[in-house]
Design brief:
globular, Rossmann fold, oxidoreductase, SDR family NAD(P)-dependent oxidoreductase, alpha/beta, KR_dom, SDR_fam
Length: 246
């Protein structure tokens, strides 16, 4: 097993890519520390992990709140005896064209998608350093190619890439690796409406011939988090079905 007995903190673990990552990592022997805003989806995830014979702990938190994030992460680490790997998936994805965007809309996305990344990584990193572990942040193709109506989301995800690359240099000497996975269009609760409005146009742009599924993104995350990727740090894996090349 790739992740046997590794204690993996996953934000956004109650749905979409986060939940699927929890399932795939549990299959690889990981102990899952699932965090999210709502308890009910986390309990569903924990039940799925249990059905696989795995072990999990859960905690609710708002990643936009540093103190709440730190308290929840410290509690999970205490229950599990530490944290070896962080997978940061939690994010929001709300449409607002720039000329119509209110300051409140901008700040809401930045507070969750960028500041939330700081809050989670900063709170978890002492444990990761102790374990000489790894961090995988889920970003987006929008960070590289832009997406009309999502300037706040694109900007925050691009910033997380910059944060990851800088921390890879800062923390590499401590034995910590940090990488990103940038999914292309993937079928999750967060993107379902966007896909429904343009399924055929998306399919025309995908050499692989299908829209991404959460398990396909989760597989890339599992690889980067594991020792199979021991010589990879500060990188972005583009799991996009060939939608963008280069």
């Amino acid at each position: 097993m790739l992740l046997e007995n590794k204690r993996v903190l996953i934000t956004g673990a109650g749905r979409g890519i986060g939940r699927q990552t929890a399932i795939e990592m549990a299959k690889e022997g990981a102990v899952i520390l699932g965090a999210g805003r709502r308890q009910a989806p986390l309990l569903e995830m924990a039940e799925q992990v249990q059905q696989l014979g795995g072990q999990s702990y859960i905690a609710t938190m708002d990643i936009a709140d540093y103190d709440m994030s730190k308290q929840a992460i410290d509690a999970l680490a205490a229950e599990a005896g530490g944290i070896d790997i962080l997978v940061h998936c939690a994010a929001i994805f709300e449409e607002a064209f720039f000329t119509d965007m209110t300051p409140e809309q901008w700040q809401r996305t930045i507070s969750i998608d960028l500041n939330g990344a700081y809050n989670v990584i900063h709170s978890a990193i002492p444990y990761i350093i102790k374990a000489k572990g790894s961090v995988v942040s889920v970003v987006s193709q929008d960070a590289f190619y832009g997406c009309p109506g999502y300037s706040h989301y694109s900007a925050s995800k691009a910033a997380v890439v910059g944060l990851t690359r800088t921390l890879a240099r800062e923390l590499g000497p401590s034995g910590v690796r940090l990488n990103c996975v940038a999914p292309g269009i993937t079928e999750t609760e967060m993107t379902r409406e966007r896909i429904a409005d343009g399924r055929e146009s998306y399919l025309e742009k995908l050499p692989v011939g299908h829209i991404g599924q959460p398990e396909e993104i989760a597989d890339a995350i599992v690889f980067l988090a594991s020792e199979k990727a021991s010589y990879i740090t500060g990188q972005v894996i583009h799991a996009n079905g060939g939608m963008y090349l280069g």
